[in-house]
Structures are given as C-alpha cells and as structure tokens.
Amino acid sequence: MNIKLNQLDSSLKKFIAVYIIVIIIGLTIGLIYLSQTTSITPKGTIERFSGSEINESEFEIVDSYPKPISEMLITTHNHILGLSFIFFSIGILFYFNTIIKGFWKIFLMIDPLVSLLITFGSIWLVRYIDTQFIYITFLSSIVMYLSFYIMSFVIIFDLILKKK
Q1: What are the residue ranges spanned by the domains of the chain?
Q2: SS (H, E, C) 90-126
Q3: Phi, psi (5° rounding) for residue 125?
Q4: Burial of 78 (0-12, 13-18, 19+ CB in 10 A)
Q5: Which helix (H) or strand (E) holds 9?
Q6: Is the pLDDT score of 157 beyond 70?
Q7: Are 60 and 54 in contact, with CB atoms under 8 Å apart?
Q8: What is the pTM of this model?
Q9: DSSP secondary-structure letter at 54?
Q10: Does residue 112 contact residue 82 with C-beta atoms inside 8 Å?
C-alpha cells in the first residue's frame, strides 16, 4: 500500500486532523483527571487503588478505601477496551506517515497496546500483591502516553505542515 498522509485529499486531511485533535483533548482530560485523583505520584496512585493507610492507634476516617474487585474490573475493562480502540486507530493512521520509518514506526505503533496491558495489569499487582509494582505502572504508562502523543503530533504534522 502506497498511501501517504501528506498526499491525501484536502478534506480527508482536515477530517483526520480534527479526529486526532479530539482524541488528544480527550486523553489529556483523562490525564488531568488522573492528576486530580492521584496527584500523579506513586503514593497518590497506591492510595487510589489500595486505600489510605490507617494509624491503628488513633481514631481517624480514611481518605480513600481500597477499591473492591468489582470496581477494579470495571476500571480495567473500560480502559483496556476504550484505549485499545484509540491506540489502534492512531496506529493505523501513523502507519501511513512519511516522517518516522523502520523500527521506531513499528515500536510506536505496538507500544501503546502492550503498555496498556502492563499498566493495568500492574495496577492489579499494586492492589493485591505489593505496592512496589507502582513503578512498573508509572514506567509503562509514561511510555504509553509518550508513544501516543508522538504518533499524534507526527500525524498532524504530516497532514497539515508537510508538503507533498
């Protein structure tokens, strides 16, 4: 297939660019929500899923309770299904870019899907096995979002700024 993003019809280029911008906005709002609920720190994220630490010697009301399995399941289900469709559509469009080729093209296309599984799998490990798995959660989610943003901006650059 010899389709190139920068050679598409002008109206299709605009449609794809608007689609990418809407997805960027949606994912960025999700990250803002994440910062509000976890402060994007290991401690905040652990507390979000495993609950607040309680000092047994004092009477206190916990800030956050451990997530029950039903909430863990629905969170994992919604994120894996929703984000996999987003990453698939971005990956397909990215495939036709004319800027990044070879190993990095394949890596950027596949990584968000693999990192998605690692991120949400490690959240389960944080909740039920050991809080030290939070560092895997952080690393995989950073790589996942970086890949997403790189692909998105390359697509937009190729569609709008790069000449045929």
Answers
A1: 9-51+63-161
A2: HHHHHHCCCCCCHHHHHHHHHHHHHHHHHHHHHHHHH
A3: -65, -40
A4: exposed
A5: none
A6: yes
A7: yes
A8: 0.91
A9: -
A10: no
